[in-house]
Amino acid sequence: MASKPGSKSAFVLFDVIYADGSRRSNRKVPAEILGGLDGDEPARKIIEEQDNEIAKASGKASLPIAQLLRVGGKRK
Fold first, then answer.
1. Cβ-count burial of 65 within 10 angstroms (0-12 exposed, 13-18 middle, 19+ buried)?
2. For residue 18, which of 56, 61, 58 has the smallest C-alpha distance?
3. Exposure check for the chain: N or C terminus, fewer CB within 10 A?
4. Distance (Å, rounded) from C-alpha 69 to C-alpha 17?
5. Alpha-carbon torsion 34, 38, 39, 42, what sign?
6. Is the CB of residue 52 less than 8 Å from the CB of residue 65?
7. What string of DSSP letters covers 29-57?
8. Dihedral through CA 58, CA 59, CA 62, CA 63, nearest 10?
9. What is the pLDDT along the chain (76 residues), one digit of tens a residue?
10. CA geometry: angle at 50 spanning 72 and 37, to 5°?
């Protein structure tokens, strides 16, 4: 059975765990930048850029990312 057109998501969701142990859920990353030899590593750069924009708007420093987990993925 063929899949429906447009059924593939344009985004992949990630949970982000920061160095202080805090967690942010469902951060969107464009699906087209993921995969290949780098796997999910390009998502880190996108999420860090998002964090920098949020930090600039809030006036609080962004935290270093300790771990990225795909939503529904297993923790390593």
1. middle
2. 61
3. N
4. 8
5. negative
6. no
7. EEGGGSBGGGBTHHHHHHHHHHHHHHHHH
8. -100
9. 555 565 566 899 999 999 999 999 999 999 888 877 778 889 999 999 999 999 999 999 999 999 999 987 555 5
10. 55
Retrieve residue 54's tokens: 């949020």
Q: Which residue has the tokens 């992949």?
A: 12
Show the tokens assigned to 56: 């600039």
Closest C-alpha to 9, from 52, 70, 53: 70
Residue 25, token pair as written in the block: 């859920």
Q: Are 29 and 14 in contact (CB under 8 A)?
A: yes
Site of tokens 């860090």: 48
- Whole-angstrom distance, CA of residue 37 vs CA of residue 75: 20
Q: Do 25 and 39 form a contact (C-beta atoms < 8 A)?
A: no
